Amino acid sequence: MEFEHRSVLLHETVDALNIKPDGIYVDGTAGGAGHSREIAKRLTTGRLIAIDKDPDAIMTATERLAPYPCAQVVRGDFKDIPSILQELHIGKVDGILLDLGVSSHQLDTADRGFSYQADSRLDMRMSQQGLSAYDVVNSYSQEDLTRILREYSEEKFASKIAYFIMKEREEHPIETTFQLVDIIKRAIPAAARREGGHPAKRTFQAIRIEVNNELGVLKECISNSFDCLASGGRFCIITFHSLEDRIVKQMFAEFTKGCTCPPEFPVCICGKTPRAKLVSRKPIEPSKEELSENNRSRSSKLRVLEKI
Fold first, then answer.
1. Among the four residues 44, 210, 214, 232, which has the most C-beta atoms within 10 Å?
2. CA dihedral 60, 65, 70, 73 (to 10 degrees)
3. Cα–Cα distances in Å, from 9 out to 12, 34, 287?
4. DSSP readout, 33-96?
5. What is the CB neighbour count within 10 angstroms for residue 220?
6. SS3 at position 276
7. Tens digits of per-residue pLDDT, 202-250?
8. What is the three-class DSSP state of 255?
9. Could you give the strand order of the β-sheet that contains 47-52, starting from the edge strand earlier in sequence?
């Protein structure tokens, strides 16, 4: 199956990177190479490092970026951008991009186990390695299942879903996506199931975030990768749900803070100055045209930070 993914906020993001033809850029989530290809088109003597941890994405990105000698594809996790750049003998870069969405390929390839609309073995591993959704559902305690459903998806029926999962696995392992969907439907009252889309959506999101440690990896990436930016370099991050967006917003805000002295001090004695500035205070959202063409873009937000 070909790796299909329509890049969200494509032109807005590439424009926000403020590409210099001789600059060095990192696409930390190469996926189907949509953003990467647009970046590469704008480079002459510059360089693009396209990173992804999904082996399917690596194969596709390598093929699609082959016509661009400026582009290099690397299999890895975007939290490791500093060490990847060090291995490539690259100092500072002019832009870093993260697109945090699950790709259409991952959602639509049934045996990847991301979708509640196709039956397959529970998986959800973006890297296709390590902890899987099967492991989470069949080995986590009731307390931990309740916690991740509440924290990662704000599921109102978290404790009840966790209880139903525990009762089911007393009889046999929960192996497939449709088995889990059936449990969720039984745990959620009929009236609530008729509201807010598919009843399994929040649970699948929470388990996926846990499996891939998405929020922890995001925090680590922002914290560690900011210092890889050259002066004037930009950090562009596309988020798809409120938990991600809150982290990006708060961490970007920390980089823009200056003096922390009490307001009653006549002069600054802390010596702290802002390390970056926001390119736009409000996030950039998809146009009406994009929303009509790509329904999966509806929750996306782009935030852009520029290093001073």
1. 210
2. 0
3. 5, 10, 8
4. SHHHHHHHHT-SS-EEEEEES-HHHHHHHHHHTTT-TTEEEEES-GGGHHHHHHHTT---EEEE
5. 16
6. strand
7. 999 999 999 999 999 999 999 999 999 999 999 999 999 999 999 999 9
8. helix
9. 71-75, 47-52, 24-27, 93-99, 229-239, 301-307, 276-278
